[in-house]
Amino acid sequence: MKDVLISIKGTQGIDDTSDTVQLTTIGKLGFKNGMVMLSYEESEIVGAKGIKTLLRVKDSDTVILQRTGPVQSRLTIQKGVRNNCFYSTQFGDMMIGIFGETVECNMTPHGGTVKMSYTIDTNLQLVSRNVVEISVKEVE
Predict the structure, then answer these.
(1) Is the C or the N end of the chain the one with fewer CB within 10 Å?
(2) Residue 50 phi/psi, 5° resolution?
(3) Confidence band (pLDDT; 50, 70, 90) for 14?
């Protein structure tokens, strides 16, 4: 895996209300068994100190986002499919539904982009609509 600069823009909202969070960090980019793999540590600035994230893109239509540390989760965003996913918070663990609306991956060993949009629900009730854009560049 090689060092890369990762820029993430995430927008979360419901109805006419939305919030956007942006993070730029150094991470690792690699390819294994046909999957794109990105890893990075979350930022204390966004309240996620000590959390490590591994993002794997599989078959260009599935993203597996796994977080380890004080908060743990494993989310599967698959285009056109609703997945039940484990999500841990400081208040307890829960299962949430993730419906993948779009997944786009344009990644090379030198960098590229991953974009995805998905909804989150609990008990089949919509919680939020999310759009995540990730840009990756080689560190020179």
Answers:
(1) C
(2) 85, 5
(3) confident
